[in-house]
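Hi V.,

You were right to ask for the full record rather than a summary. Here it is.
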Amino acid sequence: MFSLSHSHRNQIHYLDTLKGIASMLRNPESTESVFDIEDGLSDIEATRLAMLHVRKDPDMATMIEDRYLRTEEHDLDALLKLPADTLGYAFARNLTDKGFDPDYFRKREVRTDIDYVLMRLRQTHDIWHVITGFDTDPVGELGVKAVEVAQTRRPMAAVVSCGGVMRFLLHEPENLGKVLAAVSAGYQMGIKSKLLLAQRWEDHWDRPLDEWRAMLNLTPVTSLTPKEW
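Predicted structure:
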């Protein structure tokens, strides 16, 4: 049976990463480009070290061992019946108002710890937006990626953050200050708060959003003044 050598696999991953970066620079709202970058960087040493970093969190280590994942699709109608101050309601309201599919992300077979972490990040990305207060526009996406860089040290998040800043520098320099403020705010938020990846959000949809944030030691981005933002 034909099989690729390790060097050939690395070349394919490298090309996938370049393709994703080029696509993201053209269109920062392309989710497929982000998944291309992520898949291309999944086997490099920096990703392995990021895995070791997140495993230092005891709750995260347990989640990795348990392979805790959401296996069913979101029932947004049911979540919208929760009290308006809860995480579940805020999550469903945000997705419904914007017409987003909560299960849009590219699926990945979970065979390794890295596979698991990547799938869990994809599953919970929209929850991170709600918890942090960052919008889902290109600026807000970079803010969330900065949180991820601070908390996971994942190379993909760093590449997307840097690529996003470069894209604004080249194509929308008038908005560069706003982008840098979001990246700075996201990074500081990530440093100060508990590991978002280690939370079993779906088990506690009915917990008030403010209570979640207090537990995580997280102040949402809405606390920034208009001038800073």
